[in-house]
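Read as amino acids, tokens; as here:

___
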Amino acid sequence: MKTDVDTGFKGILIDCYITSCILIYDRKTSLYFSSPKENTTELELQIYNYMRSIHKQLITRMSSFILQDFTPPIQIKSIHKISQTTLQNFPPFKKWSIEMKKSLSEQYTNPEHPFKSSPYILKSIEIQSIDEFKTGKIGFLKLKVDISNDRGESLPGIIFMRGGSVAMLVRPPLYPHN
């Protein structure tokens, strides 16, 4: 039996395989279950029922809104509590949005654009992770976007955004001081 369950402070990620019943987590939609089989042990059944209860919690926490300023409008999904205003006011998201709109529109306006014959479309955005500072400001944001064209080709869609944070390298001295 293999189980790997990571329950974070703000969200729940599940990847679980049990020999007698299979639980599959698909981030885009929801958790799918196969029925427990006859040879399911008591422990496996308890894990299965626990996963089903987590799934119900996950679905009730899921928030969604539409960004109307994209063409076509984009659905934002998140298991984190974030408002549309907060997201759109996050400077890295603001900058990314502007650049994304510009890049997508160039496919239609530039006759020499390499994707002119089959332009890519931003279809959805899933907020996978949000880290906030104590002040409530967003520090880090991880997104998964679905960008594809009518040929079924897609572009890499994992984005890590960093807000007003600093990086620090701590370097201990090579030799002890006398």
Residues 2-61 form one domain.
